[in-house]
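Practice problem: predict the structure.
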Amino acid sequence: MENYLLSPAALARYITAKSEGAASPSESELESSLDEVCQELFQTAVERRVLKHACRPVIPKREKVLRRDEGADFETTLKAQLDESLKELQEVAASLTDLVASAKESVLSEWDSRRSEMIPGDEILDSLFKRYGLRFNKRRDSLEIASVMQPEEIPDELKRILNELVR
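Answer:
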């Protein structure tokens, strides 16, 4: 959700207010800083892509155990399901190098047009805030940033979602 808050103009205003004027970046400085932060977090985007695949749940198929063939042994059937799950995990572990390479290639192919969408917004904002001697607090700052956004700074996708919610 924080990715919708990455408006350079709104962030410039908010950082100025949050720092009580100690930092007063311009919109263009914020735009450059956001780009630099995203570049620094490239590896994070790759890792998130790998984790999405490598850490998906691998669960033995309970229904296959419950609905086993008549006369089939419970423990044998359950062990077979557990072995299948272990095999799946071992396959993921064995393909990890390929997964990372594939994720990196995929991220690179989309990087120019989607970089800020591929990195968690709270990580972008925290890295950005640190540049100005601040820390990003997801609970407090997200609402505050949203409150200083002008209507034209709200992404169209978020406007559409909000309009559908209030119908």
